[in-house]
Amino acid sequence: MENNTAIPVLSIQNVGKAYGENWVLSDVSMNIMPGEIHAICGENGAGKSTLMNILFGMPVIMQTGGYTGKIFIEGKECSITSPEQAIAKGIGMVHQEFMLIPGFTAGENIKLNREPLRDNPVSRVLGQRMKTVDFAQISRDSQATLDRLGVTLEEGRMVDSLPVGYMQFVEIAREIDKKNIKLLILDEPTAVLTESESEIVLRIVKRLSKMGIAVLLITHRIGDIMEVADMVTILRDGKNVRTVAVADTTAGEIAQMMVGRDLDLSAIEKRTETLSEEVVLSVRNFKVDMPGEAVKGVDLQVRKGEILGIGGLAGQGKIGIANGLMGLFPATGEAVVFGKALKLNSPKSSINAGLAFVSEDRRRMGFAPDLSIAENIAAPAMLNYNQFFNNLLFFKQIDEKTVRENAKKYIDEFQIKCTGPDQAVGTLSGGNQQKVCVASALMLTPKILLVSEPTRGIDVGAKNMVLKTIARINREQGVTVIFTSSELAELRQICDRIAIISDGTVSDILPADASSEAIGLAMSGNRR
Amino acid sequence: MKKAKQLLLSNMVPVLFGIICIIGIILSGTPISTILSDLVNRFDRNILLVLSLIIPVTCGMGMNFGIVLGAMCGQMGLIAVTIMGIDGIGGILAAALMAFFAAIICGFLAGKILNRTKGQEMITSMIVGYFSNGIYQFIFLFVVGGIIKVESDIILSGGVGIKNTVALDNMQYALDNLSIFGISTRVDLFSGILFFSIFFAVLFLMQAALRHQFGKKQIIQLAACACCAAASQIMTRMPAFTVAKMLIRIPIPTFLLTIGVCLLIQQFMKTKLGQDMRAIGHDREVAGASGIKVDQIRIISVIISTVLAAWGQIIFYQNLGTMDAYYGHEKVGTFCVAAILIGGASVKKATIGQAVLGTILFHLLFNVSPLASQQLFNNSMVGGYFRMTLCYAVIAVALMLHVFETRAKDKEQRA
Amino acid sequence: METIKRGVRKFGMPRIIIIAFIIVILIGALLEGQDMAALISDSLVRVGQNMLLAVAMLPCILVGAGLNMGLAIGIVCGLLAGLLSVQFELVSWAGFLAACAMALLFGSIAGVLYGRLMNMVKGSEMLIGNYLGSAVVYLMCMFWFAAPFTNSTIIWPMGGTGVRTTVPVSDYYEKILNNFLAFQIGKVTVPTGLFLFVGAVCAVVYLFTRSRTGTVLRVAGNNQAFAGMIGVNVNRARIIGIALSTMLAAMGIVVYAQSYGFYQTYEGPLTMAFTPMAAILLGGATMRSVKIRHAVIGSFLIQILLTTALPVCNQLFPESNLSEVFRIIISNGIILYALSQAGGEGR
Fold first, then answer.
1. Higher pLDDT among residues B152 and A149, named by residue
2. Region B181-207: what's the mean pLDDT?
3. Is B101 near chain C, with CB under 8 Å?
4. What is the mean pLDDT of chain A?
């Protein structure tokens, strides 16, 4: 960590990236010195992945118009337009989804596409590709690298037989096996690891730093940051909120900087009457097996007519609750809706109990992409309540006219930008697709509406619209709302109470006007 | 005991088929020598075709039903050679050369199409096969003689299109029975066993020398060779085996060629290209992300497969002696895929051993079922249908098993 | 230029090529002095004869299982039904309708089983369906061989057991639909009954797609996850779709046989799936979206092409049997094109 050169190994100046009109990253600058461990943290959508993709020259950046700003590596300005270029310049990256070949050994993975080769008679004629792979050399080199990392692992083991943490080590080993590596980007390295494996990764990071390799640690685990990082940059809404030495700040401060935000959306009208104490939905010891968002035992009680917010950091389980309640992922525990026990793991039962869901995974389960707006909006009501049908002899026939008129109603109300109710939903923009999803959920006339990340990836205008609509049906029709979101501002704007989920359980339930600090602390949990 | 049980379970398919074959042999009432003689011929004909399936599997493209294209290229080579009137081994080699170039082109085109349908390679290769069959039929039904005027015996009397069956008399056994200095190389069973025992002994010794390995494994290998050699010389003198000695002929050159191809495939997998193919086969996205040129290499794997299939079909017909010009290649894809699946291969993994075992079992079954059904039901047609049902059912079941396996593995990974 | 390009893409390259082909062939026919009336009459018959098989593809695509490559299973059910109707000496309308009824029955049973199997292999339905279909055809070959039919039309003339390769229905209900209310326009014969019947089936299928169950299938086929979320039992929907497909194929072969004159057993059904697939794709269906008009338009196009091409080619090249070759090239070419447009991994 102590290097007297004043030249940063990486210097980012005013870097930005827009997807269409949407600036996901703007005016970000930072310097990283050789051997420095620099953490980058922020909520989902803060711009961390985008920054990483830019630094590693990922195709998605170049294909959508490139980036603005300048990048300097060891003082020399460069533009990185492909992963090969990034690698050539000494940048290595360990992605969040493992980039390992499961059927190869650790050694073969470490040397992937850089295998040591030997000549043979055929290669002299047919060229480079026909050279024999020197498997013995692979073993020697890769074992040496693993040893350098301080990891006890035989390079000959098959990757698919390794525990997840060890896969992570192999990935790191692969990057530092590249001789010219100067900067290693680690994307959420401890996200899926056990405690002990995380410990090892953090030790490796410190070791790398001693070897003179700078580490860019992308993470939202504040505990990890406090333990190993030298510097931390907090990103929020695509901007660099602050870069500070870890020694000069605290966990709570970091949390606050991550989530605190100026309220710049128009306020939702406050309630005029007080809420009743009647509980309409309650869960006890609710567990949901949702990959990446596991719920490990949640107790909640939702009051009639309230808008209950569910917040928390990514991967902590907040998304799992609503998904579990709608029967989309295996759930266990007790759930009682309007006094009756809810049959779990059955979407139909949940719908019959009066629940409706606007999923956060809009693309995968929000709508049928090739069907029209009209049909999408009408579908849930059609298939559950037999609405929109005419009787023709012994056949029910779709009443096209009312379906389209119904759709037109929502198109006007939500201002869905489209060529008409017959347009295929798959061709709409994200925000408009979201409006369709909300509309189709409302068609079920639910008594309890679950919305999950309803404003993710949509522009400000649409955001407002969606929030206003949810507030309106809550006030006017008394629909209880469970509102899951990673955007604290919108939770504070619309919810009455906010339950913070950390590590799969309820960390705290706070009133909507609680301080950012209190909420941030609840989010970072009480671990480490 | 447990190990044996495990071995049995993990190789359920070949074991099952082995049992069916044995039942079939017993039921057929045919003497073993006759069966073996036929089996040797069938194996000789088909093994290279089945081997051609291995490389695309390794590259993650599943079962290349498009080897039909290669077979058609091979047939085109033979037809061209027959029209040009080249005989004997010269004809075979000329055909192989022409087929080589044709197969490269066809393999390239097929590879391009397959790259456009990643994830659906098997069904695409199947349709590519059917489509090209149509084009082939068009060429030989009509273009040859119709548009390209040709004077030859094999042209139909009207002058357009070639005959249904093309006699390859002057090329039959050209490779199987390549005579070296006047000595026939299509020898009787025991001479064949002797030759290959010595051959493999030398091979093992060379391998041991190259790898500086000489342990238990090498001793067992050499001992086995010695035993086979000895046994063959003893049995050749015993009257009980005279019939076998007369009936069963081992075509040394073809088998040598096949062994050569196997060795080449093994060595190929150890090259950079082979390693890249393996990487792509396991995980295409990761391979691509690490800079491996996925599309290019996939095309190369299809080209290699097509070329091997082309040569395989030439060997097929040089053994058979008459070529079914219009339909000879039709079922090549299906049969070879069934064979390798019976040998225990899967859509994700296919080895040389599985190809060999599968070819033996498949053709044994193929040969024996009409005979068995003749004995059982007094007609052989049912046996024919039975073997086709089995053939298709095997493929369907193997494909289904593959889906289940993949699903189970995904679930495991996510957990 | 741009509008032309957009128009072409919207209308579909394959359709343009095929229509161009048809025009060329018709011109060729005129020039050769072919009997145009006969050509047109034949085309009409072939269109009606084959249309139900193309319609059978619809429920399968609708429910998200792709093209029904295991159509042979439904066809085999229809063959069994047809042979039974002959065995029971049912003639005329009784025979035809009984065959249809039995076809629907057998088709539904087989279809449900087949649908169950397909549910186990979501994503690989076409590939596995193809081989299952072939396996079933050969299994039935063994059955045809030993089947205890006694009717002399069905079994081999030399006695013994076993069904013939082609079972003629000339004494039973051949062309009963075709001839029903048939009329002439000039020298062209219009097989009215055929079109009435096939049209009625198409109408029923159309009503079905717009019914509640049809909507369930459509939503389930377009996005399984979404459908599950709004309370649809996706597996059940798929079974219904595949069973319907099988039933339509079964009935389709009965209609085919009454028009063609024969039930083709043994290996007959093996390659019968490809032309209907090409037809519906040609009509504009994709793996993600299908309407009844796709089946209808596509059938017209492909059958007219194949029917008119035969005599024209035979006159040009009298020595050859090019029609079958044409069929292979065109059908498979269309399917290949559709596959490459779907771009793989796009399901």
1. A149
2. 83
3. no
4. 85
The minimum CA-CA distance between C319 and chain A, rounded to whole Å, is 47
Longest dimension (CA), chain C: 69
Q: What is the pLDDT of residues B365-386, one digit of tens each?
A: 888 888 887 777 777 778 788 8
Tell me which DSSP letter residue A129 carries: G
Residue appearing with tokens 């040569």:
B311
Mean pLDDT in residue range C208-223: 93
Q: Assign C317 a pLDDT band (cuts: 50, 70, 90).
A: low
> Between A360 and B402, whose confidence is greater?
A360
pLDDT, tens digit, 9 for 90 and up, residues C333-343: 888 888 887 65
Q: Which two tokens stand for residue A494?
A: 């619309």
Q: What is the pLDDT of residues A308-321, one digit of tens each?
A: 999 987 778 899 99
Residues of A in contact with C229 (CB under 8 A): 326, 328, 347, 357, 359, 365
The shortest C-alpha distance from A479 to chain B (Å) reads 36
Give the per-residue pLDDT at A408.
Answer: 92
Query: Left if phi > 0, otherwise alpha if psi is -120 to 50, otherwise beta: which for A158?
Result: beta
> Smallest Cβ distance to C289: which of A348, A370, A398?
A370
| Spacing of C-alpha B102 from chain mean position | 19
Confidence of residue A525 (pLDDT cuts 50, 70, 90): low
Chain-chain contact of B278 with A103 (C-beta, under 8 angstroms): yes
User: Could you tell me the pLDDT band of residue A267, with boundaries at 50, 70 and 90?
Assistant: low
Interface predicted TM-score of the whole assembly (ipTM), two decimals: 0.84
Q: Does C216 touch chain A (CB under 8 A)?
A: yes
Topology (CATH) of A264-354+446-528: Rossmann fold (3.40.50)
CA distance C316 to chain A (A): 46
Pick the closest to residue A146 from A167, A170, A112 (CA basis): A170
Q: Does the beta-carbon distance from B160 to C120 stay under 8 Å? A: no
Closest residue of chain A to C233, computed from CA coordinates: A348
Per the CB < 8 A criterion, the answer to whether B66 and B96 are in contact is no
Q: For residue C66, which of B274, B127, A190 has the smallest C-alpha distance? A: B127
Q: Is B147 on the interface with C (CB under 8 A)?
A: no
> pLDDT (tens digit, 9 = 90+) per residue, C119-157?
999 988 988 999 999 999 999 998 888 888 888 788 887
pLDDT at C316 over 80: no
Amino acid letter for position C172: Y
Give dist(CA B59, CA B276) in Å, integer. Answer: 8
> Domain A1-90+180-259, what fold?
Rossmann fold (3.40.50)
| Three-class DSSP labels, chain C | CHHHHHHHHHHCHHHHHHHHHHHHHHHHHHHHCCCHHHHHHHHHHHHHHHHHHHHHHHHHHHCCCCCCCCHHHHHHHHHHHHHHHHHCCCCHHHHHHHHHHHHHHHHHHHHHHHHHHHHHCCCCHHHHHHHHHHHHHHHHHHHHHHCCCCCCCCECCCCCCCECCEEECCCCCCCHHHHCCCEEECCEEECHHHHHHHHHHHHHHHHHHCCHHHHHHHHHHHCHHHHHHCCCCHHHHHHHHHHHHHHHHHHHHHHHHHHHCEEECCCHHHHCCHHHHHHHHHCCCECCECCHHHHHHHHHHHHHHHHHHHHHHHHHCCCCCHHHHHHHHHHHHHHHHHHHHHCCCCC
What whole-number distance in Å separates Cα of residue A144 and Cα of residue B111?
Answer: 40
Domains A1-90+180-259 and A264-354+446-528 share a fold: yes
Residue A414: pLDDT band (50, 70, 90) is: confident
Domain definitions of chain A by residue range: 1-90+180-259, 100-179, 264-354+446-528, 367-445
The set of chains that have 3 or more CB pairs under 8 A with B is: A, C
Q: What is the pTM of this model?
A: 0.84
| Element holding B1 (H helix, E strand) | none
Q: What is the largest CA-CA distance in chain B?
A: 69
